[in-house]
Protein 1
Amino acid sequence: MSRARSPRRPRLIVPVPLGLAPGLALGLALAGCGSVPSAGPAPVSTATALPAPTTATAPPTVAATPSGTPSGKPSVTSSASASARPSARVSTRPSSTAGSGGATSHPVIVIDPGHSGRSIRSRTVNGLLDVDYPNQPEMREVFDVSSCVAAGLRSDGYRVLLTKAHESSSVSLTERARIADRAHAALAISVHDDHSQGPTFQAVYSQLGLTVDGRHHAMWRGRGSHRTVFDQPSVARASDRAARLIARARSRAEGRPVRLAEENFAGRPPLEPGNLALVQLLTHRPWVYNELGARAGGSTTSELTVAQETAYAQGLLDGAEAAVPNGDRSPATRASLGRCLAARR
Ligand SMILES: [Zn+2]
């Protein structure tokens, strides 16, 4: 296995004074990754697999929003109006394409390793701030895990795209979402870990969110006229089904509970407030966002062990294949994960 990055080396953690180096300050402020869950853990219950992949599908299209939307390529449309709480909606027609991934025997899975090599910020078409930043040691770890899960999926007959070519690549969240959309991915999974959180924090986030009093609520980001609601029910349901399967597989592989949870971006500027990862909001494909509590003892900088990375990779591989079955799950693929991750050190 070729190595996509330089060998790991001891890292110095240097305090950065506030007001200096905006990119660094941003990185520090966000070092907790994206992992402030809200609400309690939800039980991981029996779930069904995503719809079986079908033959090539048409691109997702945009359904009418409250203000009406031209059909055509996926877009985020604003419905800024005189309403008291204007909301844009990311919307597709209720789609039979959710969960389909192209050719029957080779479904597409997109793997999204968290973070970018440099701090980047732009605006989505709807005016939401699209922010990404480096975060080590997480960025190295999740790129390795993602690369080895990708290798495993490919050896089991899947077509796999990574949203980053290299660990140090900088790719906006908008572009990451587009990669999955263009590929008509059956499933996309974001891979993160969080060194500010201990091992009891293991989370999986879907585009459906959690139920409150038996009901689902809006999944959204942004404030004022930029407030954007995820309004793709069939995609959200497919994401929820996949999230449950991935949570179960990760629980088994990691030997500890991995729970469905919901994010809370309130009070974390420059991140937009809301409860859904931006990449999940912007896409038209089922997307599951994973976090792994990675703190070791009192250290927030100790790297994951190969065994920990392997367990994470195993759960992601098993969960993705359960969510998008293609009838070919090789034990050899699982055995190779540890070798793959060890080789990347
Ligand atoms: Zn992260």
Note: The longest helix spans residues 233-254.
Protein 2
Amino acid sequence: MLLLSAALFAGVVAVSATGFGRAVPDPAYAFLQEQPYAAGEPVTWRPCEPIRYEVNPAHASGSDDEAVARVQDAVAEVAEASGFRFRYVGTTARRPADADQLAPGPAPPVLVAWARADEVEDLAGEVAGIGGSVSREQDRWSWYVTGRVVLDADAVDDADDERATLLHELGHVLGLDHVDSRRELMHAQSAGQEDFGPGDLEGLARLGKGTQACS
Ligand SMILES: [Zn+2]
């Protein structure tokens, strides 16, 4: 059982985009960003390439190997729900602030890290984690090319809570926004929901389908 917690999830998209949320009632899902030249189409990852990710286990509970394994388990669930392939590239010393600016050239892997509010301001208050991705536009189509998940090392204190937070933030990384329904894990507030709900799963599958062939 996930203990009821007052922790809030916060989604952060590290790009300057106009806010976009399309709530679809029952089952509920919403996308963080819409394609600028294709109304209704979500911004997400290229379905034909694996989403590379790395883990900085500093501040996580347990050993580094255990922290990495917990992330890999959560990623496997998101991969299955979405159809996206992920590739773990190893541990890193990269910190969340290093992921704020996207330099020209190849984008770095998605960073999964633990931090405290004195390092990552967005974790202040009752925030359990943040997650989001950065897009690049090519040929009038936007793709996410990197992203980050940061778990609050102080607020996430048991394994079930951590797992639910990881799944939620990875949902943001793929392109899901918050929804009002408390049946969904993409609800903004942790309310005892442990697993993806029906809308979450439909939204993830929709994101993973992709509507543009990769070139
Ligand atoms: Zn959130």
Note: Confidence is low (pLDDT under 50) at residues 1-20.
Protein 3
Amino acid sequence: MTDSTSQSTASASTPTSDRDGAASRTDLSAVRVALIGAGNMGGPVARTFLAAGVRPENLRITNSTAASSERAAQELGARAAASRSEALEDADVVVLGVKPYQLLDLASAIRDEVPAGAVVISLAAGITLAQIEGALPKGRSVERAMPNTPISVGEGAVGMMRGGSVTDEQHRLVHDLFARAGVAVDITEEQVHAFIGAAGSLSAFVFALIEAMTDEAVRLGLKRDLADSLVQQTVRGAATMLLESGMHAAVAKNGVSSPGGTTVQGLAALEREGVRSGVAAAMAAAAQTSREMTQG
Ligand SMILES: NC(=O)c1ccc[n+]([C@@H]2O[C@H](COP(=O)([O-])OP(=O)(O)OC[C@H]3O[C@@H](n4cnc5c(N)ncnc54)[C@H](OP(=O)(O)O)[C@@H]3O)[C@@H](O)[C@H]2O)c1
């Protein structure tokens, strides 16, 4: 599925060497990034770029108003551009973080200002590489990146789709920018629908499950703050155990289930209540919606 994968953690000791000891990454200290749209997703993308080594003064932000650009830049520890043109001037990387319905109009509006050597990264769901390339001058380098919000703490996932004009060097640069995001993998535009079900939207499904588990812990008699920490730590611990051991989830589950014990009774209740099929339905709905949003 992938031709390139990068993994990292927020606790990595140096931003220039990969967890698996792969070759050193690009020095990002001179890379200039224009971020158009630093909202719920553009903001975490800015944070991960800064964590990877982009210098705050080289990360120029522009939102829909000067006040909003200033606010976002301050929050993120980056620079507000005086104008969209200023953000784009000499940019090596242009990130488009606006809503999907705005994306192609924005691409058309900036087509003459995107520097010829820049790589344009779109975060938008449902807008294809071909559509974005069609809105820009011929031969422009375009990638799509589909991140989830846990990239803001270095524990997210990003699926990257590479356009036909992107050079190996530019593609490496995009990977290096996301090197502190968690896991960054190359996917095809066909795979992005499954990726949205399995990563992009999945964090929200996990938040909903965590909320339900915490509420039930409170109903069972635990104080809210204790319930929060027990549930969150257990979810993190379960995921970390699987990640670090490589153990199959079913094997780990069986390891907690003694005959006639508390866990098997709880697992039987989960199956009776249809939790497995509910989770599958949520993921399938997200993937299907992504397919329907894609018209290109
Ligand atoms: N949210 C997610 O979990 C997620 C996951 C994967 C991908 N995405 C993608 O990320 C993109 C952004 O979604 P979002 O949830 O981050 O939306 P959002 O929170 O509404 O952010 C959109 C940003 O675009 C800015 N903006 C709007 N019009 C603009 C313009 N004409 N020029 C410059 N900036 C403008 C907004 O600035 P103002 O605040 O000043 O209006 C805001 O900062 C979408 O394409 C979405 O598909 C989102």
Note: Strands lie at 5-7, 33-36, 59-62, 79-80, 93-96, 119-122, 141-147, 156-162, 182-186.
